[in-house]
Amino acid sequence: MTKQVLSGPEKPLQASFYDLSYADLQTVLAQNQLNPSAAPLLFRWHYKNKQNTPCTVDIARSTQAFLAEHFDFSLPEIDSVYLSDKDQTVKFLFRLKDNLKVETVLIPFNNKYSICLSSQVGCAMNCAFCFTGEQGLKRNLSTSEIVGQFLQAWRWLAANRPGEERVLNIVFMGQGEPLHNFDAVKKACEIFLSQYGTSVGAQKITISTAGYIPGLQRWSEEIPGVNLALSLHSPFSAKRDQLIPINKKYPLTEVLAYIEQIPLRKKQFITYEYILLNDFNDSAEDARTLGELLAGKRAYINLIPFNPYPGSQFQQPPMAKVEQFKAVLDGFEIPTLIRGVKGDDVLAACGQLNSKRQ
Ligand code: SAH
Q1: Which of 111, 200, 319, 324 is the most buried (most CB within 10 A)?
Q2: How far, in Å, is the centroid of ligand 1 from the Cα of 175?
Q3: Is residue 2 part of a domain?
Q4: 3-state SS assignment for residue 169
C-alpha cells in the first residue's frame, strides 16, 4: 500500500455555519464538550442580529476557538443590485463560492417586503414559459446559500434603506424547483422557523412547486404548516403537458388528489398559481374548467399575467382579458388575486430570472 501525501490548504476545509440547524448546532457543541448555552447566543447573533462575523459576546474562549477553526461565517457575495424605477423592488445577483450566480428578489408588500428565494442554480423543469428553465439545471443550492440570500438581502436593506429591513414573507419562487432540493430547503425552513433566530412563522413561508409528488410527500410529512403553492397553469392535461413537462410523469389529477388528502392547519390554504398566456390558456372555457376543478377546495388562486423575456414565445394578455378570467373564478367563489407585475423593468418578475444573461 502506498501512503498518499495530501497537499493543499493547511486548515481543513471549513463547513459553513449557516448549514447548521439549531439541533445540528446543539449536537456539534455536545459532541465537542462545549457549553450548550452557546447555541441560543449564536443563533441570536447570526440570525436575529444578522451578524456575519464570529460571535465574541458571552461565548467561552474554547467555543470561539473551536468555531473559528471549523466554521466559515461568510455569506454569498452580492455581485450586483438592480433597483426598479417603478417600485421598491430590488433584485440581487449573488456570486457563490464556485463563481456560479443566483438571483433573489425583494418585493415590496404593505410597507414590508416579501423575499423570493432561489433553491437551485437554474432548474431542471424546463417549463415552456420560464426564462430560468432555459438555462437548465446547474446544481442544487446548499442550506447556507439559501439562508445566505435572506441574510444578505436583510443586511442590504439595513444599510441602504434603514428602518425598512422588514421581511415578512419568504417564498421559494425564485430560480429552481424547491422540492427537487428538499433536504437543503427543509433545513433552511427550520432555521427560519427557529425561535432563537429569525423566528418567522410557518404560515409566512411558501414553497412553490411545478408538482413533484415525491417532494410533496416529504413537504406534508416533514415541514407541516409551511405553505404550498402549486403552479397549475392549465386544467387540461394536454395543454399542461405542453407547458410543464413534469406533468407527463406526475399528472395534475394525481397531484391534486395527493394534495387533497393532506390535513391542512386551521386557516391554511393551498395557493394555485395560474400564469395567463395570451390566446393559449386565458379563454372563458379555461377559466370555467379551472373553477370547476378548484371549487369547494381550500384554495387561493394567484393569476400571474405572463412576464415576457428576450426570446419568449408567449405574450401577456390585455388586462381586460385578465379581469374577465378573474370574474369567471369569482363566480365559483374562489378567492382570486391578480398578481401585480412588480420589478419587471429589471427582469425581476416571475420567470424572468436567468443568472446566465447578466
Ligand atoms: N419551480 C417552482 C418555483 C419557481 S417559479 C414552480 O414551478 O412553482 C415561480 C412561479 O413563477 C411559478 O408559478 C411559475 O410558473 C411562474 N413563472 C415562471 N415563468 C413565468 C413568466 N415568464 N411569467 C410569469 N410567471 C412565471
Answers
A1: 200
A2: 9
A3: no
A4: strand
